[in-house]
Amino acid sequence: MNPQLNLQLMIGGRIRGRHQAAGFTLIELLSVMGIVGLLLSLSLPAVMNARAQAARLQCANNLRQIGVAVDGFHETRRHYPYYFCGIQETTSGTQRGYCLSPHSQILQWIGKTALADSIDWDDQVLDSNASAPLAGSNRTAFASSVETFLCPSDPLASGPATSYRFCAGVLPVWPRDPGGMFPPARTESARDAIDGLSQTAFASERLIGPGRQATAFERLSVIISVNSTEEIARSCYSANLAGSSAGGPFDSYPGTTWLRGSARHVTYNHFFPPNSRMQDCAARTVYGLFSARSSHPGGVNVLFGDGHVSFIANDINLELWWAIASRSNQEVVDKF
Q1: What mean pLDDT, rounded, does the chain reach?
Q2: From CA 50, how far away is CA 110, in angstroms rounded?
Q3: Is residue 319 part of a domain?
Q4: DSSP tag of 142
Q5: Distance between CA atoms of residues 140 and 19, nearest Å
Q6: How many domains in the chain?
């Protein structure tokens, strides 16, 4: 054979061999794709879990900031902020509508001094359905978003809403003191926490709006014509047993304002455990049973009076859950 031709064949053969070795067969390609898909399926839950953990930590950090602000308010005023929504007598003997939230009182301690200064405390008259102030001077504050009041894992956390509420106690307000550190129209101080600040719940997460998504318990019951704490609790319990339609119309409004000091916006109760499958209930659209709720798997973040935040499991012992809601552990709740 011609040596030159033989050399050309050899070189050509090596070139063809290298070209063929650089490619992938269909089986190899499918194998690689399968391995990549498997790795993604294994890593995706870890990524999602990491994001959920980050959101939970941010929600807890917001609560800590609220705790620092509440402590700063107490140091300055010698009492904790409170909430009230109703009619008050003025110094001149006239009456005016007045609606004050704890959130609005701690603004300057969370770096919102300008917003705090913009609020006209003598112009808190609200319309009958509580959707906006009648007077114009507080409309800007009413529409302002405060990042510290919004939990990243709350699906409806946007605008002038709040994902955090202050603890009123185990049961609603009337006819007697509900026992929490944030009763209506009355101020409490650190010395009133007989159980100790580290054992007393101050605030917790509560999802904005109905509080649950896509469940049979999504509705917020509105129970009419109840006149006492016991009636509200029993009526709510009975309505839940009867089904989601027994309690009344759907209400998506609670929590959509941090400014208005209505119980349904800025307080919560410990009657039901965290993330209870029992639907929340309201009496006369103002007071009611508003449970601690979050999107975190297994529980909620709770701020205690000494400033620490604990993640409380949904299956916490109910009597313990009642006890930490009370400033003096004197809360007695009838068992049904």
Answers
A1: 78
A2: 27
A3: yes
A4: H
A5: 71
A6: 1
Write out the DSSP string of 39-74: HHHHHHHHHHHHHHHHHHHHHHHHHHHHHHHHHHHH
pLDDT at position 250 is 46
Blockwise average pLDDT, block size 10, the chain, 336 residues = 50 48 69 74 62 86 98 96 76 70 95 92 53 61 94 92 94 68 88 92 90 45 59 78 55 79 88 89 72 93 97 95 83 44
- pTM exceeds 0.85: no
With vertex at residue 64, the alpha carbon angle to CA 262 and CA 331, rounded to the nearest 5 degrees, is: 55
From residue 185, how far is each of 77, 85, 322 by CA, in Å? Answer: 16, 8, 22
Structural domain of 84: 54-325
The CA distance from 309 to 330, in Å, is 23
Q: What is the structure's pLDDT at 97?
A: 65
Residue 32 domain-assigned (yes or no): no
> Each residue of 296-328: b (16+ CB within 10 Å) or e?
beebbbbbbbebebbebebebeeeebbbbbbbe
- 26 inside domain: no
Which residues, other chains included, contact 292 with Cβ-Cβ below 8 Å and sequence gap of 6+? Answer: 165, 204, 205, 206, 268, 270, 274, 275, 300, 302, 312
pLDDT score recorded for residue 181: 92
Strand partners, 97: 87
pLDDT reported for residue 335: 40
Specify burial of residue 295 (Cβ count, 10 A radius: 0-12, 13-18, 19+): buried
Query: What one-character DSSP code corresponds to residue 108?
Result: G
Closest by CA position to 272, among listed 255, 252, 254, 293: 293
Nearest to 302 by CA among 329, 330, 273, 333: 273
SS3 at position 237: helix
| Closest alpha carbon to 124 in 110, 144, 141 | 141
Summarize pLDDT for 253-302 with one digit per residue, the tens: 678 889 988 888 899 999 999 999 888 887 655 577 889 999 999 999 99
Separation CA 164–CA 258 (nearest Å): 9
Contact present, 263 and 168 (Cβ < 8 Å): yes
In a domain, 8, yes or no: no
